[in-house]
Amino acid sequence: MNKITAIFLIFSSFCFAQQNQEIEKTVRNLFLGMKNADPELVKTAFAENAILQTITKDGTIKSDNIQEFIATVSKFKQGDLDERITIDAIHTDGSLASVFTPYSFYLKGKLSHCGANSFQLVKQNNEWKIQYIIDTRRKENCKEIK
């Protein structure tokens, strides 16, 4: 019985790690698309009716249009938009995933601001897509992320 349990645990760990890699790839493709000024890559990261929001300094929620965000990416040169993240946690349940990432955002090589992103992803047609992002933004106490 111990061999069967061990095999199950190894298989489960492998599947879990592979799923996390797929989720992480979707998130990283968003930022790779931004850095490469590639609106098509950015677009592939999002679900059809995705939501993009920011918590302002006074605590209100500001919503941004995803299509406008994607269009803005194309107005920059490659390397101008560089959001560096650290993935702190990935949680999943079936077709739902939650990812938390502290970040530092560089605009044309200069640190602009930092904060944290909270992503909600959904698995659609065997692909993970970002359904919802909410972030914080601040200019103080920013740590550089390599």
Automatic annotation (TrEMBL):
InterPro entries: FrzH/put_lumazine-bd, NTF2-like_dom_sf. It holds the Pfam family Lumazine_bd_2. This is Putative lumazine-binding. The lineage of its organism: Bacteria, Pseudomonadati, Bacteroidota, Flavobacteriia, Flavobacteriales.
